[in-house]
Design a protein that fits this description.
By secondary structure, the protein is mainly α. The protein folds into two domains: about 55 residues, Orthogonal Bundle (Arc Repressor Mutant, subunit A); about 100 residues, no CATH class. Helices cover about 60% and strands about 5% of the residues. It contains nine helices and two strands; from the N terminus they run H-H-H-H-H-H-H-E-H-H-E.
């Protein structure tokens, strides 16, 4: 049995469906998804719930992410891994899906590349450790702040020598 047999839709929600979903949730509350889905032909309870909770809820903040939110997200991913529902408790107005997408599309790659690059250059810097290089251990928040400074003009104008060590 597939979507075609059940006459269910796998297409994007239309503006009309979004409006109907908002009104139906307002009428029945945000818990009776089977009842709500009966008012949206071709949509399952799960589709309705996911659409509302991740995109349409008036409690959601869909604006740009602040630098502080990004730092908090890096810290919480280090603490909880990819358990987005736990991490979500630290973010007012952000859905677990929004948090996961922010991490995977904007932060995971930069975090991975920075660690990969620093581990690659660390052995050559380690030889200078005793003479010229400061060795510093960082947690995720400090790392993000220092990495930002490292990429700014201030780092290059100050000619700082640092060895980054990640646990």
């Amino acid at each position: 049995m597939d979507f075609d047999d059940l006459n269910l839709s796998r297409t994007k929600f239309s503006a009309a469906e979004d409006e109907l979903l908002r009104k139906t949730v307002q009428k029945y509350g945000a818990k009776k998804w089977n009842t709500i889905a009966q008012h949206l032909p071709g949509r399952t309870a799960r589709q309705c719930r996911d659409r509302f909770q991740n995109y349409l809820s008036p409690d959601l903040t869909n604006g740009p992410w602040s630098h502080e939110e990004d730092l908090l997200l890096l810290e919480k991913v280090d603490e909880y891994g990819s358990c987005w529902s736990k991490i979500n408790k630290f973010f007012d107005g952000r859905s677990p899906n929004n948090i996961k997408n922010r991490y995977n599309t904007h932060l995971a790659k930069s975090k991975y590349h920075s660690k990969k690059h620093l581990k690659k250059v660390a052995p050559s810097i380690k030889k200078e450790e005793e003479n010229e290089c400061d060795v510093i251990k960082f947690d995720a928040v400090v790392t993000a702040k220092l990495w930002e400074a490292f990429n700014s003009q201030d780092y290059f104008s100050n000619n700082l020598d640092l060895l980054f060590i990640f646990d």
